[in-house]
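pasting for ref. prot 1 ->
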Amino acid sequence: LQLHHSGRYRCGGWVKVWLSEKWRESALVTVTVHGIPVSGVSLSAQPPWGQVALGDSLVLNCMVAAGTGPLSFSWHRGDLGTPLGTGPRLELRHVGDNDSGHYHCRVSDGDSVEESGPLNVSVLGEGDNQGE
């Protein structure tokens, strides 16, 4: 079932009455499909644990255990209000010193919102190339 299946339904059929058939319909019934709130939002990273070498790429994936769609995703670092991206996947290419920090994703179904826990991204070798 999907949310758009909510509505009023009835069934009908041909019923034999004496020697003739007549179309008969049931009373209307109301069917309401309830959405499942977003829950169980978590992150995974490649390379694992969010540790990436300076200049390499990092891919973050946002996973949802339950929730009725359509779902919208946004990515955030620290307390920055502006999203870094949308969609269940965020790729950081050629990471630099300023890419370190705590990342999280936010998922909404239009009614409820849930955030993942933070993932600390560490850029290995930060500062090694300063002054060169």
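and prot 2 ->
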Amino acid sequence: DKEVRAIFLRLFAQLFQGYRSCLQLIRIHAEPVIHFHKAAFLGQRGLIENDFLTKVLNGMAFAGFVSERGPPFRTCDLFDELVAFEVERIKAEEGNPPKMIKHVRELAEQLFKNENPNPHIAFQKVPRPTEGSHLRVHILPFPRINEGRVQELLQEGLARSQGAPPATRGDKKCVVPAGPPVGTFICS
């Protein structure tokens, strides 16, 4: 699963490399609006006649991508680092499948670490239903919840969590690296 996601991450990093240089911040409105200059992006990459990329850039998903990733000061992630710093590596690996596979595996490992910051926590497996369970006609009603016991458990959990350090990592916002300008790419 993570390796497939890493392959798509590389694909989108290649498709959108240099997109930040075509973002325009419009401050006419009460709240600034971020606009993506599609013609400049396609023109600088020599892909004006490319129907696929034109359709991708005109889609709603890309509009959401620009509004989410457009602000210059936000939390950076693996995609931002890939677009900004790994463009040359991806280009160099195009003719070398073993290096490409190694990079995909590194990205997959990083995706796994991002989603599972505490590897020592064991995942509980859900037992398979017993044979013939789908044939049961009588389903027992869900038991009544003891509100007093629920409140006790909540209070115990709050008492424990107040003394413990916060479990979530604070996402640190920073200036998003722009990466190389669009004009430096030669598309194949």
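The first strand starts at residue 23 and ends at 26.
The two ends are 27 Å apart (CA to CA).
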